[in-house]
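Reopening: structure tokens for the 3-methyl-2-oxobutanoic acid complex, inputs below.
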Amino acid sequence: MIKLGGRRFFSGTTRICSSFHEIQRFTINDIREKFSKSQPISMVTAHDFITGKFCQDANIDINLVGDSLAMVALGYEDTNEITFDEFLFHVKSVSRGNSKSLLIADLPFGSYEISPQQALTSSIRLIKEGRAQGIKLEGGEEIVPTIKSIVKAGIPVMGHVGLTPQRHNSLSGFKLQGNTVESALRIYNDCMALQKAGVFSIVLECIPNKLAEIITSKLSVPTIGIGAGPYCSGQVLVMADLLGMNGPVDAKKSKFVKQYSNFYELAVKGLESYKHEVSNRSYPESDAHGYKIKKDVLQEFRKMIE
Ligand code: KIV
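Re-run output (same inputs, fresh job):
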């Protein structure tokens, strides 16, 4: 057996040669190392092969296949509508596009709440069929037995507390959490319980900056914030939001979203230009976009059809 860049390969197979060309994938150890050096961790969601490739080529540390894809890529009303098999299809697609980032997949609503065994079965499918390296699930103290059973099977688990979109019905909407003493205390206790259960990191969604800062300072695993201010160990955004994929620049978006690009407008403009050129016959140009046929072949062909 030989070891290449932290990965093990068994000799006597052709994989040894091809392995030199393989891209080395980020692992939970790399995340721990960044955390120990106080280097901020970047995480972005992707929903298919192309967006996975964007994350790979931008060297994003963690590529999350988040169930937000149900809304931003599939047009569902909320994240609860997507089925496990639909979601798995997207995990497979992202994993084919990204060989570099640590790939974490959400456990979608309905795939883990019934029992730790159901959660473990779903997690194994995400790893085995989806080729994810770990899973994320929403919830606090109540899901500790579930987390323990997944971690025990050797699957890295990322927690998710604060605003947990799968529970938006019991939270009465997508709202800021942790803004009362009781709620802040619950989130704090949830984080401590998740850490004890063995998560390697925790997403803090939509909670006050100061609360996120205090929780981060008390934990020994990294926090990844979304709408949780600048004092988390890392940040995550939904790619469609940060690249401006789903609507014009002035479309309504959450306060915490920063848009770094303008994909939607670029796409619509590009399509309008294409339509215009097709309509006025300026696309395609004969030489620039077309293929030539040899004179004698053409002549012979003409003869044959006359
Ligand atoms: O589903 C998702 O995209 C998420 C992130 C917002 C953390 O869970």
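The first strand starts at residue 2 and ends at 4. The two ends are 68 Å apart (CA to CA). Marking as resolved unless the reporter disagrees.
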